[in-house]
Amino acid sequence: MNILVTGGAGYIGSHTVKELTSHGHLPVTYDNLSEGHQEALRGGTWVKGNLSDEEKLGETLEKYSIDAVMHFAAFCLVGESVTDPQKYYHNNVTQGLTLLKVMLEHNIKLFIFSSTAAVYGEPQEVPVTENYPLSPVNPYGQSKETFENILADYQRAYGLNYVSLRYFNASGADPDGKIGEDHDPETHLIPLVLKSALMAENHSLSSQQSSRILKIFGTDYPTPDGTCIRDYIHICDLARAHILALEALSNGMKSQVFNLGNGNGYSVKEVISLSKKITGREIPVIESPRRPGDPAVLVASSEKIKKELGWVPQFPELDRIIDSAWKWHKGHPNGFKK
User: What is the mean pLDDT of residues 78-85?
Assistant: First the structure.
């Protein structure tokens, strides 16, 4: 199949592009590089463009005879979404609507949506299943829930068939070490921990580096070690789930929503401790107060996608996830700028 991958030069998108290529599909990355990296692309072809450009979108769909769309292009910083909600609703909702409009004009009705566990808000029970009530607590999560509702409406009205994949904590890097996580700013725990390990190698840290020493936000949660517990899923397992969803849709599966996580939770301190063991380096940390809105435990149930699509994580162990990320960060201390 020929697949348009919006945001395909980003972290999750680029790993999915590589996975699509290895499965014999033709990925066509459509990205303006505002967040992504052209160097991350490992397969298919690339078109530089904005989702707001209906003419270019249409030309791309037609030129490459696109069969389906995987939509990764979104802003995803929770804090920024609170201070600048307009940016998030415009990009994550309005521009997504433009994409759907152009798709329908070209009679393309297979769609894989990059959603998030943020649609659940602060669940009071774990593991979280797909039936748990949606109650996002920030504009980022609200923008994703809104778009999920739009997809359901489009399915009923226009026959758009979709799968919405609600990610928990995407982590790790491709085992070959050539592509990985490179965000600016970085907000995810595992890369922050590993970057702290890299900085610790230089004993004469600059004042700027010292200000970026890893912070543990809250050590008084009702968990065994007092720190938050999260569910980490390897990026390649995440990418493979997109292939399974695409193939199921193309074979007639009805529109669905699936969680994507490992079903196992690890605390912040456990991640740091295991990272110390893997890197062989000390990781300086600062214990800080809790951040508002951080639930104590957030773990997914991914039984639905395992049962219905046969998805099985190939990297379920946290040490393998961290080890793959360490291989990437150690080999690319400046990300794709190396």
Answer: 90
